Amino acid sequence: MEYSEVIKNARTNIGPYCKACNVCNGIVCKNTMPGPGAKGTGDLAVRNYAKWQEVRINMDTICEQRTVETKFELFGKTFEYPFFAGPVGAVKLHYGDKYSDQEYNDILVPACAKSGIAAFTGDGTNYQVMIEATEAISKFDGMGIPTVKPWDLGTIKEKMELVKKSGAFAVAMDIDAAGLPFLQNLNPPAGSKSVEELKEIVKMAEIPFLLKGIMTPKAALKAKEAGVQGIVVSNHGGRVLDQCPSTAEVLPAIVKAVGGEMKIFVDGGIRTGIDVFKALALGADAVLIARPFVTAVYGGQEEGVASYVQKIGAELKDTMAMCGAFSLKEIQDDMIWK
Ligand SMILES: Cc1cc2nc3c(=O)[nH]c(=O)nc-3n(C[C@H](O)[C@H](O)[C@H](O)COP(=O)(O)O)c2cc1C
Questions:
Q1: Where does the FMN hydroxy acid dehydrogenase domain lie (predicted)?
Q2: Is this structure's pTM higher than 0.85?
Q3: Which one of 109, 138, 144, 230 is least enclosed by Cβ atoms within 10 Å?
């Protein structure tokens, strides 16, 4: 299935807010929440995408020709590529009635695993969202990363039990989620966590723990102090606080602060294999891509996901070859023009 066909199909069934644009750049959906947009003016999703486009590639083909290898190691598992499907929860609320979270994850999780990557799954105010996400992961040998919201410690403990039962190989927490408009003033409450509380949560997890929603070197250092195995440099696609910088803008300083000491993922507006290359050249170990995987599921189910992964993988390999990087380790910051 061609990716253009996937996008075209998605337009027929993806609900009222997402328009399944050719380029998912945050402009048309701007501030639709519910929906896939961003908070406030909605300009941060647009900025996330735009700032990757300002980073350009330094092509250099004077080198020995070798086979391009994109394999990526994470917590004892080997993946085909250094990109993953990012967590998206409550799909009915944001993308209309076509899929429940269970149906969405039952397509996404195996489709990613079959394409050699893994899916992060989302969480929601409805308790059922995490139950269904972890069930999808357990059906597929634990090949997924559930992402738990920063609820009160009692609720986190209950959700961690679901995570452990699923056999997931790692778990994440979107520590920035309290900024989501539909998560405010709720019971159970969600909100900030101190380093001490995070230490407790990391211990509760018992499996590798990633903290998602890191936007400053200071926060990255606190995450390190809490003992996490990795961070996701993310502003939640602009959905938790308007007027933050883009992730491409803050990534280099965060890499300088904690690079090499933990895994660094980044997300927000990464749309092509060329963008993946740029993120790795700026020092990320791997990336998450969230909204376009939703379009891929709505537009072609498992085949749509396979088509999107194949497209991004091919673009990444092409870019690596054109810059003389034949393995992920060979991608260097002098291969981009800033
Ligand atoms: C509709 C929607 C739901 C989301 N749900 C979650 C979630 O449950 N947990 C989470 O950590 N991030 C969630 N995110 C944020 C994404 O994982 C990601 O950080 C953000 O969209 C930026 O990546 P992108 O530009 O590739 O979409 C959601 C994003 C959208 C658009």
A1: 1-338
A2: yes
A3: 138
